[in-house]
């Protein structure tokens, strides 16, 4: 029940944010012509704030950079980490992304959405990482 309410609030906030971003974007050129560079700087600041708010509301977008770094470090394409491949290198990289995401405070459903997989796959991966870390101790 609480999760549904949070989803509805997040969805409503995103819809409002979409409208704000469209309005700011459409008035940007008019503001520049009418009020000069200082006003343009203020519009740019509003756009940056909107992007930051979007990252808060859509935490899975925060994982894009992590996925890219993990993919590059492991010599894998990003699509492999987000895909359904089950080779050991791909699974290990995916588990690394899951562990980093969890450390950043993302929930299992949020991680699952970002990686386009089931929540049970995320919980399994997190358990396996925890077990490996404990064994390495």
From TrEMBL:
SUPFAM superfamilies: TrpR-like. Residues 62-129 form the Chromosomal replication initiator DnaA C-terminal domain. GO terms for molecular function: ATP binding; sequence-specific DNA binding. It comes from the Bacteria. InterPro entries: DnaA_C, Trp_repressor/repl_initiator. It holds the Pfam family Bac_DnaA_C. One of its GO terms (biological process) is DNA replication initiation. This is DnaA protein helix-turn-helix. It comes from Gemmobacter megaterium. The lineage of its organism: Bacteria, Pseudomonadati, Pseudomonadota, Alphaproteobacteria, Rhodobacterales.
């Amino acid at each position: 029940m609480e999760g549904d309410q949070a989803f509805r609030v997040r969805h409503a906030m995103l819809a409002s944010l979409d409208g704000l971003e469209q309005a700011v974007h459409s008035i940007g050129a008019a503001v520049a012509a009418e009020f000069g560079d200082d006003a343009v700087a203020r519009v740019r600041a509003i756009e940056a704030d909107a992007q930051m708010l979007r990252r808060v509301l859509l935490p899975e977008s925060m994982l894009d950079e992590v996925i890219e770094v993990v993919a590059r470090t492991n010599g894998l394409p990003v699509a492999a980490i987000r895909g359904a491949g089950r080779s050991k290198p791909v699974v290990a990289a995916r588990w690394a992304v899951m562990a980093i995401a969890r450390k950043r405070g993302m929930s299992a459903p949020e991680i699952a959405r970002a990686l386009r997989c089931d929540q049970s796959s995320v919980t399994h991966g997190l358990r396996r990482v925890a077990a490996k870390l404990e064994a390495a101790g």
